[in-house]
Amino acid sequence: MDTEIFRAINGLAGQVPWLDAAIAGISRYAIYASILAVLLLFIKDRKAAFAGVFGIVLGLVIDVLIRLFYTRPHPFSVLDNMNLLADREVSASFPSDTAMMAFAAALAIWMASKKWGGFAFLVAGFVALSRVYVGFHFPADILAGTVIGLAATGGIYALMPDRKNSWRNQNHFPN
After folding, report:
1. How far apart are CA 19 and CA 134, in angstroms?
2. Which residue from 126, 110, 134, 124 is spatially nearest to 47, judged by alpha carbons?
3. SS3 letters for 48-113?
4. What burial letters (b/e) apply to 30-60, b meaning 16+ CB within 10 Å?
5. What CA–CA distance (Å, rounded) separates 13 from 133?
C-alpha cells in the first residue's frame, strides 16, 4: 500500500514544470523556514521554543538510532518509472528527518500560538507531502518522521516546568 500511495502522489509530478519547480523548492528549503520560526519563538514563548529546539535534536537522535537497526532505501533507489525532482542522496529514507523537523516545529509554534500553529501544521503537511511528490520518501517514512517529531517535542514540552509555577516565581517569604 505504501508504494501505491507513493505512486499516486509522485505520479502528479512531471506534468506542470512551474509547479514541479515550486514544490521541489519547498521540499528542499521550507525546513529552514520552520527552524527559523522555532528560533523566533524565543521572543514570544521560551518554553515552546526550547521544546521545539530540543524536540528537533531529540528527533534527530531517534532517527539515527532507528537507522542503526533498520535501513530503508529511498524510492528512487528501488522503484522504476517514478519522477525524481530532488537530488539523490546516500542516506536512509526511513524515517523522514524533514517531516520530523517540520512537525516538531509546527507543534512548538502551536504551543505558543494556536492561530499560527494551525498555519504551521498546514505548512508542515505540505512540506511532508512535497517529499513524496518529488520522489524522495515513501509515505510511511513521512508518517514515522511526523510521529517522532510530535512525540519528541510534545514529550519535552510536557516535562518542562511552567514558569508561573516555578520556584523562582513563588512567594517563599510571606508578609
Report:
1. 11
2. 110
3. HHHHHHHHHHHHHHHHHHHHHHCCCCCHHHHCCCCCCCCCCCCCCCCCCHHHHHHHHHHHHHHHHC
4. bbeebbebbeebeeebebbbbbbbbbbebbb
5. 6
- pLDDT for 171: 54
Residue type, 10: N
Average confidence (pLDDT) over 70-96:
85
- Percent over 70 (pLDDT), the chain: 93
Judged against a pLDDT cut of 60, whether residue 83 lies above it is answered with yes
DSSP per-residue string spanning 114-148: HHHHHHHHHHHHHHHHHHHHTTS--HHHHHHHHHH
Query: CA torsion 59→78→2→69, rounded to 10°?
Result: -40
Q: Determine the Cα angle at 145 with ends 31 and 141, to 5°.
A: 105
Task: Kindly state the cell numbers that stand for 142.
Answer: 513521512
| Cα pseudo-dihedral 157, 158, 159, 165, rounded to 10 | 100
Q: Could you give the CA distance from residue 19 to residue 10 in angstroms, rounded to a whole number?
A: 13
Contact yes or no for 98/126 (Cβ under 8 A):
no
Could you tell me if 131 and 31 are in contact, meaning their C-beta atoms sit under 8 angstroms apart?
Answer: no
